[in-house]
Design brief:
This protein has helices at residues 31-44, 61-64, 104-116, 136-144, 158-173, 203-211, 223-230, 235-238, 243-262; strands at residues 16-23, 49-53, 80-82, 85-89, 123-129, 149-154, 178-184, 188-189, 195-196, 215-219. By secondary structure, the chain is α/β, with parallel strands linked by helices.
Length: 273
């Protein structure tokens, strides 16, 4: 992979202090769930937060925040506000049963409009839920949006770790600092009180050690995560005292500290894969 920075012009986002990309090398690892609950936790800790659903083909954020209808822009201006968070998603414009069949340039144009033509106002954090994978749309977005840093979500098993490494390589290519790796679906606690790890153990931490970036922690399997998302009320808010809820609040606290340090002379890791 080349270490040369991109020459594409960056979008200007005045009023937004930090822009955090939440990414994964593959789908199915819970990236959107992490994005929604992280944004919710940051908001509950007193921050002004925006959440951009950049997954044009498969937007999940509307469901997770209880937006189940197409929005009439004439009567309801964007961004929408739900649970105190400013939101934008293609899912507000296109019915879930309708496929969006667009090439990379059209996706890039739509996301640029979402970022620059919507009055986001003053935000402490803009969380961008990136599409899964490392294709043209993802690469173009990471090249042109002024990302402060990225967070890579994986699950413990090897097949997910292989794809997570590809996501890390993408950020290396575009010279975006990586906050660290978050392991999702790490374990669950059975009715017998024992801890079970159905997808293996320690994969995220091993990968973080191998590529020399921070390991941000583990999010447990919790049935309430899916149920809360389906009900439009992220678990971080609906079940803040659950194990998963506490894990997201701990993650938000850590990220706030890391991004604060990054805005000073301290540098986050740039990978050398």
């Amino acid at each position: 992979m080349s270490n040369q920075p991109t020459n594409l012009p960056k979008i200007e986002l005045p009023g937004i202090k930090s822009v955090l990309a939440v990414a994964s090398g593959k789908g199915g690892v819970g990236k959107s769930t992490v994005s929604a609950n992280l944004a919710m936790a940051l908001s509950m800790q007193g921050a002004a937060v925006g959440l951009l659903d950049a997954d044009i083909y498969g937007p999940s954020i509307p469901l997770m925040f209880g937006v189940n209808e197409i929005i009439d822009q004439a009567n309801t201006p964007f961004p929408l506000v739900r649970h105190g968070i400013k939101l934008m998603s293609m899912g507000f414009l296109v019915p879930p049963e309708k496929a969006v069949i667009w090439r990379g340039p059209m996706i890039h144009r739509a996301l640029t409009q979402f970022l620059t033509q919507i009055p986001w106002g003053e935000l402490d954090y803009m969380v961008i839920d990136l599409p899964p994978g490392t294709g043209d749309a993802q690469l173009t977005l990471t090249q042109t949006v002024p990302l402060t840093a990225a967070l890579v979500v994986t699950t413990p098993q090897e097949v997910s770790l292989i794809d997570a490494r590809k996501g890390l390589q993408m950020f290396e290519e575009v010279r975006v600092p990586v906050l660290g790796i978050l392991e999702n679906m790490s374990f669950f606690t059975g009715d017998d009180g024992k801890r079970y790890e159905p997808f293996g153990s320690g994969g995220g931490k091993r990968l973080a050690s191998q590529v020399k970036v921070p390991f941000l922690g583990q999010i447990p399997i919790d049935p309430n995560l899916a149920q809360s998302g389906d009900n439009g009320w992220p678990l971080t808010s609906s079940h803040p005292d659950s194990i998963a809820g506490k894990a997201f609040h701990e993650l938000a606290t850590k990220i706030k500290g890391d991004l604060s340090s990054f805005q000073q002379p301290v540098k986050l890791p740039i990978l050398n894969l």
